[in-house]
Design goal:
- By secondary structure, the chain is an alpha/beta fold.
- It folds into 4 domains: about 130 residues, Response regulator (Rossmann fold, 3-Layer(aba) Sandwich); about 170 residues, P-loop containing nucleotide triphosphate hydrolases (Rossmann fold, 3-Layer(aba) Sandwich), CATH 3.40.50; about 80 residues, Helicase, Ruva Protein, domain 3 (Orthogonal Bundle), CATH 1.10.8.60; about 60 residues, Homeodomain-like (Arc Repressor Mutant, subunit A, Orthogonal Bundle).
- The protein contains 20 helices and 14 strands.
- The strands form 4 sheets. Strands 2-1-3-4-5 form a 5-stranded parallel sheet, with helices on both faces.
- Helix 2 packs parallel to helix 3, helix 17 crosses helix 18 and helix 18 packs across helix 19.
């Protein structure tokens, strides 16, 4: 079927001719003798296009147009008019009509306009459906979290959803910062526009600049054509800058200008381009400390920190683990074609007692692995990875007393890092497990103290 069309005309002969032409081309066609009858049909059925005469007794095509736009905005309306009323038809287009046709009707033009109008209507319907799906997927109610800290975050999201204010999200890796950013976007007035995300820590500085702002042809070796950056691509939408704390100072200055002036300049360009983008940034760093160290701009911090909140690590919201695990299990049951009913009590207890250095992302990976390996109705401990089953030693059980004159916590942390690296033989993954933290967190802390693997942990030669 090519599409569904409602023909509205008070002249029976005209209705029948149009119906015959469109049905011969594969359209499903309904008819109405006037505006009120048409409106009733539109409310009961799904039409792609309303093809309406302009001048009719009672409700005319212009009034019907206004009601269709209000009641069914995705339905296209094409007005049919006589030569003497073309001005009225043009006015109808200003009011939202897709196009107009003049009598006597030309068959080829009728079919051309009908095809384009139906395509537009279907595209609008698909976009509306996609928007609803995205809103449902990323609405705060759809994000798992019954913990009081998460409920407070959901409250903030709802409160600022109508705003375009800049948001700064704090949280460890794997806590779901991008998920929250998407919730902010898809519950806002920008939901139908692009959401663009980039990890500032994963891309070298020079490449990050071109990714964000684009570049002109010939801006550098290999720039054979103009390239649009993420800020231009996200115009009227949202850009999510993950790990903003790792952005270089020079790029921070350029980002500050974008926020202040609402314009960007492509690399190698000479003119400024206006952009209307909401910025949501995220970091796992303490930006106050970074400002004191001189590695983050204070003026940029205040521009980003208009609305700020911190996502709790999974270890601080353990009550959410069973629900999160059930959600992930359902997802991977569907992916792997399995019918696993849940986790055994012993397996769930291990999940509840584990420290989760990788947070929600790590939990999902554990459930994915378990669902893939498990062969029974319940996931047992044998399907869990070794690190989950190895209970870490608590500091309280260690032979350690705080001196009366106190300690330097930074020196203590540095010593723990060195000991872990020595015990792990310089293997970062093993050292991270010993300390109950993620690989990336360990890398960050080693860099923080200037602990270089090659300098500290190169095996000694000849017994020296």
């Amino acid at each position: 079927m090519e599409g569904t069309v409602l023909i509205v005309d008070d002249e029976k002969g005209q209705r029948e001719i149009l119906k015959m032409i469109l049905e011969s081309e594969g359209y499903d066609v309904g008819v109405a003798s006037g505006g009120r009858e048409a409106l009733s049909a539109i409310q009961k059925n799904n039409f792609d296009l309303v093809l309406s005469d302009l001048k009719m007794p009672g409700m005319g095509g212009d009034e019907l147009l206004k009601l269709v736009i209000r009641e069914k905005p995705s339905v296209s309306v094409v007005i049919i008019t006589a030569h003497g009323t073309i001005d009225s038809a043009v006015d109808a287009i200003r009011q939202g009509a897709f196009d107009y046709l003049t009598k006597p009707l030309d068959r080829e033009k009728l079919l051309s306009v009908t095809k384009r109008a139906v395509e537009k209507s279907r595209l609008m319907s698909e976009n509306a459906m996609l928007k609803l799906q995205l809103e449902k997927q990323f609405r705060p109610e759809g994000i798992i979290g019954s913990d009081s800290k998460m409920r407070e975050i959901f409250r903030i999201i709802k409160k600022v959803s109508g705003s375009s204010a800049t948001v700064l999200i704090y949280g460890e890796s794997g806590t779901g910062k991008e998920l929250i950013a998407k919730a902010l976007h898809y519950t806002s007035s920008r939901a139908a526009k692009p959401f663009m995300a980039i990890n500032c820590a994963a891309i070298p500085e020079t490449l990050l600049e071109t990714e964000l702002f684009g570049y002109e042809k010939g801006a550098f070796s290999g720039a054979y054509a103009k390239n649009t950056g993420l800020f231009e691509a996200a115009d009227e939408g949202t850009i999510f800058l993950d790990e903003i704390g790792d952005m270089s100072m020079s790029l921070q200055a350029k980002l500050l200008r974008v926020i202040q002036e609402r314009e960007i300049r492509r690399v190698g360009g000479s003119s400024n381009i206006k952009v209307n983008v909401r910025i949501i940034a995220a970091t796992n760093k303490d930006l106050d400390s970074e400002i004191k160290r001189g590695s983050f701009r204070e003026d940029l911090f205040y521009r980003l920190n208009v609305i700020a909140f911190k996502l709790p690590p999974l270890r601080d919201r353990r009550s959410d683990i069973p629900e999160l695990a059930a959600s992930f299990l359902k997802r991977y049951n569907d992916s792997f074609g399995k019918k696993i009913k849940g986790l055994s009590d012993e397996a769930m207890n291990m999940l509840m007692n584990y420290g989760w250095p990788g947070n929600v992302r790590q939990l999902e990976a554990v459930i994915e692995r378990a669902a893939l390996l498990n062969e029974s109705e319940l996931i047992g401990v044998e399907s869990l990875p070794m690190e989950i089953m190895t209970k870490p030693v608590a500091l309280s059980s260690m032979d350690f007393e705080l001196p009366e004159d106190g300690v330097s916590f930074e020196e203590f942390e540095k010593e723990m890092l060195v000991k872990a690296m020595v015990k792990a033989g310089g293997v970062l993954g093993k050292a991270a497990n010993l300390l109950g933290m993620s690989y990336r967190t360990l890398q960050y802390r080693l860099n923080k103290f200037g602990i270089v693997k090659e300098s500290y942990f190169t095996p000694k030669k000849n017994g020296l």
